Amino acid sequence: MKFVCPLIVVREIGVSRAFYETVLGQKVLYDLGENVFFEGGFAIHLRSHFSGLIGVDESEIVEGPKNAELYFEEDDLDAFLERPESVDLDYVHELREQPWEQRVVRFYDPDQHIVEVGEPMESVAKRLLASGLSVEEVAGRTLMPVEFVGELAPVHKSNR
């Protein structure tokens, strides 16, 4: 068996498609009308069509349960956050640092699915290494394996 992708259900396929293309820079792999697959490895499906496929009334498909999110990484998180004012996002929270020192922002898509955009852990580790921390200190702060951090260090520094 092979897992293919997560699929989220949306009210208006065009609105959601535009959101993921415009705000998150996603490219469409396949547009099948009521189902759109993105190169990023997820799909959106039109609620009215999906409800018929699973045999439930549309009203039974709830929005915004806050029990899952779509996670994206952005190498230049600061540039992403400086997007045009014309893109009005409904934030779960604005930029914050997680306990493992990764900077992230969370907001809702048009159907109240949570979207998280964070800096890649490679970037977090490099930022901390550049601040003068040792490989072991960075591994401890980020919860990443020492081997992972060590591969990113220009010169393996150690506090031995």
Automatic annotation (TrEMBL):
Domain VOC: 2-120
Name of the protein: Glyoxalase/bleomycin resistance/dioxygenase family protein
Organism: Methanoculleus caldifontis
Taxonomic path: Archaea, Methanobacteriati, Methanobacteriota, Stenosarchaea group, Methanomicrobia
